[in-house]
Amino acid sequence: MTLLYSAIPPLRTTSDQETINEAFHRLAEESDEISIAVGYISLLSLDELNEVIQKNGISKVTLTIGMYSKEGMPERSYHAAKAYNQKWREEGIGEIRLVRSFAFHGKLYYFAKDNRPIAVMNGSANLGVIKLEATNLRQYEVASLIEDQTEIWNTKQLIDKLNASPISANIAEVKDLNLIRETNCDLGKSDLAEPVTSDDLNVYRKHQTGLSFLLPLKVPTEAERISGEGSKDSCMKSNINVCYAAPRSARKSRDWYEIQFTVDKSITTQPGYPQKNKPFIAITDDGYKFKAHTTSDGNKQFNAVGDELLLGRWLKGRLVAAGLVKPVNDTMKDETRKGMITREMLDEYGCHNLRLTKTDKTIDDPEDGPLDVWTLFFE
């Protein structure tokens, strides 16, 4: 048994020792099978694990995560894990599983070649240890490198038990996992959006009335994005992909965050729908407030007052925070339209509509006096 450490003085590894990170990568190079069971992961460590698998031609891999069913999982890590799980399953090499029956806090790493065990690492290190980053450079971990065949087999049996149903399930099959929403940093770039405390948000929820409107998001499918079929129609009629429509100036692309939220006449003509050019306060489900209004013929356009990018920063920013799409610096150069919001992205996020609901509350505005308060939820 060899002890492995992180590289933090005064507990730095000695000349006859390896760090956990070094041992993991060395053993991965010697293996064609890796089984890992940990409590937590990081986004970068997921990327690193996939890179290790591809680089070393790993033909069998299982990553089992133990704590998220109890505590909830950060949405960015969740979406990345689902994507890698699908990729590994399609390649026929493995899967990512979540422990369901209890909270598993162990850290087990098993390595094998040609069905013969090489070693296991047992200790305190979650998956983040395989990718050094700013958040873990000063974090001390310890592990044991075990090469005794009996002990290796005992560890592998434990991992196999964790991977059995109903103790764990493939991440794609887990439908009731609580997702921890990431902070939308994009909305903070607008001076016109103010944060709302959770207590105040709960108050507005309690004061919602029965006057409510469901506003569907119109987006193309991934197949339509890739093929380009109906692309003009998809751009011009998709209320959040207008940035891919013809620019106003040949010299300047539309901003990726620009949206034109066009609401169908069947909704805008319903009694109680916000009147044209009459501002109101929108309170979002993730804790922001800003002034909004409806404009254009038949009050069909829904947008924020004073900032044409604000609504896009709120809506698209949430998809960015979830890791489902990346902002595009120049939409005219995005010929494959990788930044286009698709139906599959909304499916993955779990939201396809905006819900606009009137409350019985008002807020005094310095410019417009008392304004009605509406909640604006992404659902």
Describe the structure using short key phrases.
8-stranded mixed β-sheet, alpha+beta, 379 residues, elongated
Write up what this structure looks like.
The strands form three sheets. The chain has an eight-stranded mixed beta sheet with strand order 1-8-7-6-2-3-5-9, with helices on both faces. The radius of gyration is 25 Å and the shape is elongated. It is built from eleven helices and 18 strands. It starts with a strand and ends with a strand. The relative contact order is 0.13. The protein has helices spanning 20-30, 43-56, 68-71, 75-91, 149-162, 198-206, 222-227, 231-237, 265-268, 310-321, 343-349; strands spanning 2-5, 33-38, 60-65, 73-74, 94-99, 108-113, 116-123, 142-146, 168-170, 179-180, 194-195, 208-216, 261-262, 280-284, 288-295, 301-304, 353-365, 369-378. By secondary structure, the protein is an alpha+beta fold.
Question: Quick summary of this structure?
Answer:
The protein has helices at residues 20-30, 43-56, 68-71, 75-91, 149-162, 198-206, 222-227, 231-237, 265-268, 310-321, 343-349, and strands at residues 2-5, 33-38, 60-65, 73-74, 94-99, 108-113, 116-123, 142-146, 168-170, 179-180, 194-195, 208-216, 261-262, 280-284, 288-295, 301-304, 353-365, 369-378. With 379 residues, the protein is of the alpha+beta class.
